[in-house]
Design brief:
- The complex is a heterodimer of chains A (130) and B (176).
- Chain A is of the alpha+beta class and 130 residues long.
- Chain A has helices spanning 14-25, 40-49, 72-78, 85-91, 109-114, 120-127, and strands at 32-36, 57-63, 66-71.
- The radius of gyration of chain A is 16 Å and the shape is globular.
- Chain A is built from 6 helices and 3 strands, in the order αβαββαααα.
- Chain A folds into 2 domains: 9-78, no CATH class; 81-130, no CATH class.
- Chain A has a 3-stranded mixed β-sheet with strand order 1-2-3.
- Helix content of chain A is 38%, strand content 14%.
- Chain B has 176 residues and is of the alpha+beta class.
- Chain B has 2 domains: 1-61, no CATH class; 84-170, no CATH class.
- The radius of gyration of chain B is 26 Å and the shape is elongated.
- Chain B has helices at residues 21-33, 38-41, 65-73, 92-98, 107-119, 140-150, 155-161; strands at residues 5-8, 14-17, 86-91, 124-130, 167-170.
- Helix content of chain B is 36%, strand content 14%.
- Classes of the chains: A alpha+beta (130), B alpha+beta (176).
- The interface between A and B is large, with 58 and 57 residues.
Chain lengths: 130, 176
């Protein structure tokens, strides 16, 4: 048994530390990283940081006895807002943050998609809090 | 945090007053009819916490997170083919919470049930199991409170299996 120094960090939630493990596991000969967690936070974190992991990422979701894999890297590629997603998630209410009344979770996503061509709103969300 | 207050009206009947907006609306109307200065009255906040951010019982407003997750999933087709060799990263706590503890009576049975988790990574060259770290003062305290209220989180498991050393390493699969 030996300690892996690269993996030591101050994050207490496994959701964030999963990223570190994926990054370390993504060695050149590996063709895929499979994450076994259906959590929304995990999905959003991975989409946001997919660019930092050089290997295709799949999220394993189990419904009853059937498992399906969601191609995280492809979502990160399709979605121009992937960089803005993290802030959008916090803005619309996540674990430790309160949401604004009457906004909902997906309502902001639709206009954001439409306004992607303008490039103005994703940039605004990206810069928020920086 | 605002609490529901009970007041007694005649004949010992009890009514519960909640700090909701209707109550404050009523109070403003009373203030107006008694010719108080509206400017001064409305300088004070109506709720202990802004109602745009908190519910009337003082907890924070939550949205349905899975909704966003579903929207994102619609963007791509689900895949079944995973390129090999692959590595597996498992959220340990999420799996523990999925276990049906009611059928399990001993630690041994829980451990056996956990071992099945590792089977799904059978084709992988490396399996990482990641757990939450337990700290006394934690960002999660508020979230757990919320979970308890909704009865979602099984705190029994939380206390039973929370473990300070959080990183388990499983050696590369012997068959690979």
């Amino acid at each position: 048994m030996q300690e892996v120094i690269e993996l030591s960090c101050g994050q207490e939630e496994a959701e964030t530390r999963l990223l570190l493990h994926a990054k370390l596991a993504a060695t050149p000969h590996v063709k895929a990283v499979i994450i076994s967690s259906e959590d929304t936070d995990v999905r959003i974190l991975y989409i946001s940081f997919a660019h930092a992991i050089p290997v295709p990422i799949y999220q394993r979701c189990v419904s009853q006895y059937h498992a399906r894999y969601v191609d995280i890297s492809r979502i990160a590629g399709v979605q121009e807002v992937s960089l803005a997603l993290l802030v959008l998630h916090a803005f619309t209410g996540c674990e430790s943050l309160s949401a604004f009344a009457g906004i909902g979770k997906t309502k902001p996503l639709r206009p954001l998609k439409l306004l992607c061509s303008k490039n103005e709103f994703p940039v605004m969300f990206q810069n928020l809090g920086e | 945090m605002s609490k529901a207050k009970t007041i007694k009206i005649n004949k010992g009947e009890e009514t519960v007053i909640r700090a909701d907006r209707n109550l404050f609306a009523g109070m403003i109307i009373i203030a107006e009819s008694r010719q108080l200065h509206m400017q001064e009255v409305l300088q004070h906040s109506l709720d202990p916490l802004p109602s745009s951010l908190a519910t009337s019982n003082g907890s924070s407003r939550k949205t349905n997170k899975a909704q966003l997750s579903r929207e994102l999933e619609k963007l791509v087709q689900p895949t079944t083919e995973i390129p090999s060799p692959s590595v597996h990263v498992i959220h340990g706590m999420a799996h523990v919470q999925k276990l049906k503890v009611s059928d399990l009576t001993t630690f041994g049975q829980i451990a056996d049930a956990r071992c099945h988790v590792l089977q799904e990574g059978g084709n992988s060259r490396r399996i990482d199991v990641v757990f939450d770290v337990s700290r006394e003062i934690s960002i999660k305290s508020a979230e757990q409170e919320y979970g308890e209220k909704k009865g979602k989180r099984n705190d029994e498991i939380h206390t039973r299996i929370s473990h300070p050393s959080s990183t388990q390493h499983v050696a590369p699969n012997a068959t690979n």
